[in-house]
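## tool: complex_structure
## caller: assistant
## args:
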Amino acid sequence: MKLFEYTRAGSAADAVRSFGPGTMYLGGGTNLVDLMRLGVAEPDRLVDVGKLPLDAIEEAGGRLRVGAAVRNSDLAAHPLVRSRYPMLARAVLSGASGQVRNMATTAGNLLQRTRCPYFQDVTRPCNKRQPGSGCPAIEGDHTNLAILGTSHACVATHPSDLAVALAALEAEVHVTGPGGDKIVPMPGLHRLPGDAPERDTVLEEGDLITAVELPAPPPGASLYRKVRERASFAFALVSIAAVLDVRDGTVAGCRIALGGVAHAPWRAEHAEQVLVGGPATGEAFRTAAEAELERARPLPRNDFKVPLARNLIVRTLEELAP
Amino acid sequence: MDITLKVNGSSHSVPVDPRMSLLDLLRERLGLIGAKKGCDHGQCGACTVLIDGRRANSCLALAVATDGSEIVTVEGLMDGDELHPLQAAFIEHDAFQCGYCTPGQLCSAMGMLGEPGPSAITGDLREDPGLTPEEIRERMSGNLCRCGAYVNIVSAIAEVAP
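## result:
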């Protein structure tokens, strides 16, 4: 691991002020320390923001504000999250292990980097790690990689479960940085690879997430479900966060976000459009899922994700329908 | 940089390189070799210790970032010469892996017993589920190994679980 300087920030403003070239913020460290050990991340300086007093979960005006430094385990165990946003609790609990969830923070979870094996292997080229060096994943082992929104430059997925739930809940990400304060709506924090896969999010250098704010839960029933290669402690092949509001047999509202399929949590807007105003039947769910997955551009060894995602959407909506 | 830690009840002030993990600090500087370096990437759980009462992968924690924390390692589970009931239950149920994983399994189980709330397999999220064998399995899934004693680990923990 390359030598670096370490400082602990006393406040969010202090952290932003001390940010300079080669600096990275350290949250719980569960991803960054690992990437530093692998040689993927080589900061000159770490500003530790993991112990900032941003660790409260507070309710105000029907909204829930989750501090950036709230640990994943505390987020999932919070009574208001469990009762009002069960989809969010399920998403967080489906990720990593008890040990990792005790360390990992809310903001760090959103900003974790892809687990694409080529990104993590510094002996191989990777456009995300070293722009312009190439993407051997496209011709290589892309089994677990993206099928939607990919580019010629990158087929990596975003590994977060939390981000998928937040995309369906239309959370707001509160950010402070050198350019002042801003609010980034979810989905929208994470970007598709295009020609710049090295950029995971729309955040600028030195931007620090301070909180995630959840609007009142949308009407309807919700579910987070994750399909993976083993029953626990594995990343998603495909995951879904879905909300379905059915009134008199008609879909009044629907939100579907998919994980494990794209560079960002994938909001299935085409499927949603097909569904809203129509009947809540298995046939309609299948038509909607297919409308979304028409856009999929799988590679030869991850084409199984297309029927997997389709079946997951249909099955989940069937369970949510009254 | 100098950091101060309370480890198994004793205070230590030690100079550390910022790159040093908590695991390396415990093993190399303090001679506490109970926590094991398995994968060194947070994937196997062999390095699990309690940081401020919560189980965590000590390989993923930079030692400098734990300045001021209270750490409990497997060496700190005993009360004097008396085994912790969890340790006694591991012996009783023949719950040992090869020895590389067992310290992490014990510390992980200690942390798990104190963790409220649901898990990924809990049916009703509003209830705190009892520690059924299925709940114990899910909650212990951050400790991986290829030995064969898993079933006995579950029964050992179940004996101590409230």
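## assistant note: The helical segments of chain B are 22-29, 85-92, 102-113, 133-139, 150-160. Chain B touches chain A through 41 residues (CB under 8 Å). Handing back to user.
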